[in-house]
Here is the input.
Amino acid sequence: MSDLDRTIHEPARLRIVMILAGVDVADFNFLLEMLGLTKGNLSSHVDRLEKAGYVEVTKSFKGKIPHTEFRLTKAGHDALVEYWAGLDAIRALRDGGTDKG
Here is the structure.
């Protein structure tokens, strides 16, 4: 069994990836509202996910107002699938190697 992906395992980043897995795109304010993080904290976590190649960040302007959008990349989706498989493997060990659902 391989170790869990520490980039995703951190609770705030796991929540970000899970939200992005359920939408095509999310903007900064949507994630702020959904997660209840500070702007700086959200930016820091998204930066880490972007550096890992899990999140694509698109910055633009709506008029004179900055607008930032986030998308989960294929690598991010694959990492999340692998993360869940790792958790399932841990659960299987706990359950004596049987899948009890």
User: Anything to note?
Assistant: Residues 35 and 74 are 22 Å apart (CA to CA). Strands lie at 26-27, 55-62, 65-72. The chain has a mean pLDDT of 92. The longest helix spans residues 74-94.
